[in-house]
Amino acid sequence: MFLDNFVLIAQQVLVLFILIAVGFACGKAGVITEHASKKMTDIVLYVVTPCVMIHAFQREFTFDLLGQVAIAAGIALLILILSVLLVKLVFHDRDEARKKVLQFSVVFSNCGFMSLPLQKALLGEEGMFFGSIFVAIFNVVVWTYGLLDMSGDKKQLSIKRLAINPGILGFVLGMVIFLCGVHLPVFLAKSVEHLANLNTPLPMLIIGFYLTNAKFKKAFTDPAAYLAMALRLAVIPIAVLFALAPFGLDRNMVIAFVIACSAPTAATTTMFSAKFNRDVELSVSVVAASTLLSIVTMPLVVSLAYTICPA
């Protein structure tokens, strides 16, 4: 059973990495430039991601489903809080800039760009529904705790910045539509769906482009970086799986959360490192190396989830 699951999931992950390879080739050929990649990222963040959230919540309101949303949000928050506590215990580097990067790289996965496409491919609309909840909680935590921890400056916290975050706005709008029982007109629902579908190809092309300038040496020569990637790609998702599996929770939610937790380090790690003068070279290396390693680790971890949580 595990082998069958592994082959199925590896095929889906391979599709994503073929798209990443296309982005890499386009970057090397100059078809995708730095300017173009930034504009594509803006499209994903400000258009595609909110559409993913809205599309995911286009479903019939029931109190049972509302309860599932509350449970999923609570579990997602708990996973991130426990991840923070874990890295505080594990990493004690004297170099503060380096320590912050290592800790951040473990706590925050690429649960939007890498996980949502895989959740949809493997679990359909249910996977994207639970994946969207995880992404919404991720955005709240990364723009509060993550920002504060990386900057070391409470003044960086901003309610306005949090309120206008596109991922959070999309989630709130989706929730309002869901709670009010609003069904978008067919022409509008189809438009939102088509834009949401861009969440698979566009992020993969962007990741591929950024890999053209990646430096892997620091990640593969630094024992602490190895530990960070092991925690990010294997320890945390497997721990989440074994922690959630015994409680009879919705199978799709458990697998969707394992997928979200098995994703490589978030690119936000490098963005915050550059902004707050942390170890940028280490952050770039860990993001790039964990992305490449995830082509092996994600199928293994998710296959284990399918084996432990059979249909």
Molecular structure report:
By secondary structure, the protein is mostly helical. It has a single domain, classed as Na+/H+ antiporter like fold (Up-down Bundle), CATH 1.20.1530. The chain has helices at 2-29, 34-56, 63-90, 96-107, 111-151, 159-163, 166-179, 186-197, 201-211, 217-221, 223-244, 251-262, 268-275, 280-308. Helix 2 runs parallel beside helix 7, helix 4 (96-107) packs parallel to helix 11 (223-244) and helix 5 (111-151) crosses helix 12 (251-262).
**In CATH, what is the class?**
Mainly Alpha
Low-confidence stretches: none
CATH architecture title: Up-down Bundle
- Give a short account of the largest sheet: none
Alpha-carbon Rg, integer: 19 Å
The helix content, as a percent range, equals over 70%
What's the total number of strands? Answer: 0
CATH-defined fold name:
Na+/H+ antiporter like fold
| Helix-strand pattern | HHHHHHHHHHHHHH
Helices and strands in order:
Layout: H1 2-29, H2 34-56, H3 63-90, H4 96-107, H5 111-151, H6 159-163, H7 166-179, H8 186-197, H9 201-211, H10 217-221, H11 223-244, H12 251-262, H13 268-275, H14 280-308
Helix pairs in contact: 1-5, 1-9, 1-14, 2-5, 2-7, 2-8, 2-9, 3-4, 3-5, 4-11, 4-14, 5-12, 11-12, 11-14, 12-14, 13-14
Summarize this structure briefly.
By secondary structure, the chain is mainly α. It has 14 helices and no strands.
